[in-house]
Amino acid sequence: MRLENKTAVISGGSRGIGRAIAIYLAKLGANVAINYNNNDKAASAVVQEIELMGRKAIAFKADVSKNEEVQLFIDKVLKEYGSIDILVNNAGITRDNLLARMKENDWDDVLNTNLKGAFLMTKAVIRAMMKKRKGKIINISSIVGSTGNAGQSNYSAAKAGLIGFTKSIAKEVAPRGIQVNAIAPGFIQTDMTEVLPENVKEQLLNNIPAKRFGDPEDIASMVGFLSADLSDYITGQVIHVDGGMYM
Ligand SMILES: NC(=O)c1ccc[n+]([C@@H]2O[C@H](COP(=O)([O-])OP(=O)(O)OC[C@H]3O[C@@H](n4cnc5c(N)ncnc54)[C@H](OP(=O)(O)O)[C@@H]3O)[C@@H](O)[C@H]2O)c1
What we know:
Belongs to the short-chain dehydrogenases/reductases (SDR) family. It is an enzyme of class 1 (oxidoreductase). The protein has a single domain, classed as NAD(P)-binding Rossmann-like Domain (Rossmann fold, 3-Layer(aba) Sandwich). It is 48% helix and 15% strand. The chain has helices at 16-27, 40-52, 67-81, 104-132, 144-147, 153-173, 191-194, 198-206, 216-227, and strands at 7-10, 31-36, 57-61, 86-89, 135-140, 178-185, 238-241. α2 (40-52) links the parallel β2 and β3 (57-61). The protein binds NADP nicotinamide-adenine-dinucleotide phosphate. NADP nicotinamide-adenine-dinucleotide phosphate binds next to α1, β2, α4 and α7.
């Protein structure tokens, strides 16, 4: 699993799973570009950590739901690195509520970030990958995109949408040497899940055969595999990384 001389773009790379992915791909040899929404300090820390490893890294503040910002980010990456080999659509948010109480904004924000964001990012990089006749796109979906979850109709719809998006784009670009896959994490310990009440966490843990929550690194290692040449014959798949929670 070597990624020397490859450029990896990771959306939402400042914290949590995206941060672990950025650091892991750099460990495998890639130069890395991350974007983020607010957290300048966390994004700079990721860049510093990667530079200490002797790889190149850039962080760019760009909201994935806004086309102009995505375009500026990708233009900057192409200018700095010349090409893009790997795109990880990881940026995501939750705005949980039961349907009867869910505000229209909560629906729009989640769909715009988690699903439209992946569309805008993928559209921005796809020409460069098609020209190269090589590329890897990895979409971070979720277990709830397959199972649904009470209180997460917006998030589950976006994550299920991401699976349909993954399979459709995989079919479109397979003849061009580009593989598109999705990872469906179960419960991973990050800021996103930290806010859940203890009794909910306990209940969730009871449903994980491996009897532990996942770490961001559990997802990063699967992204490493799907980014490397050795997975070139795998496309259009949804890989559950969840300690057995979905089966
Ligand atoms: N944690 C889990 O258990 C779990 C399970 C299944 C799937 N996932 C998915 O995995 C991905 C990462 O989750 P996480 O747990 O690592 O979340 P997290 O700790 O909350 O981190 C979210 C990341 O996304 C960035 N982001 C949010 N909105 C953005 C926007 N509009 N534009 C650009 N960047 C944006 C954040 O940037 P700032 O730092 O600037 O806010 C941050 O870097 C998400 O897609 C999530 O749905 C997570």
